[in-house]
Amino acid sequence: MKSALGMEPAPSPAADLEGIFRQNSASVFRAAYRVTGNAADAEDVLQTVFLRMMKRDTGAQPVENMASFLHRSAVNAALDLMRSRQHVRNLPLDDFEPVLAESPHRRPDRAQDAVEIRAWLRDALARLNPRVAQMFVLRFFEGKDNPEIARLLDTTPGTVAVTLSRTRDRLEKEYRSYLGGVA
Q: How far apart are CA 43 and CA 159, in angstroms?
């Protein structure tokens, strides 16, 4: 339908949001699932992210990179959800990295350990500063390299490297303390 001036009407905000949802919902869900480890929680995060987009002030600054913006929103919303459930147990990250990577089908006796480590890691991330947790998730859950994380978070690769190193050290220290060792 054309206006009296012969121009197409501007697309509605709802139509814009629907297109954004169609293009990005799968990646938002995946990012949320990697943090929460639960499909139902990832669905909740997906809904939260797009509800926030729907409620976003029309006068707000336009988003330049929608995919990056939504990914960060999903990680942050997932971390918020994890923080709200905070039951903290401490297990070491470095000591159990092989367990996380190993298929539970190969070693059934280690499957339970992997579940516990994933749960601990999610809880530990909920205790971190949101920006630090976001860097950690992007690096170790999403597999992004430091320069890409720096670009996504508008910082330097050096800052990312230092932050990730300190975070790993902190998590290892927390685990040793949990086990009754010297922190």
A: 32
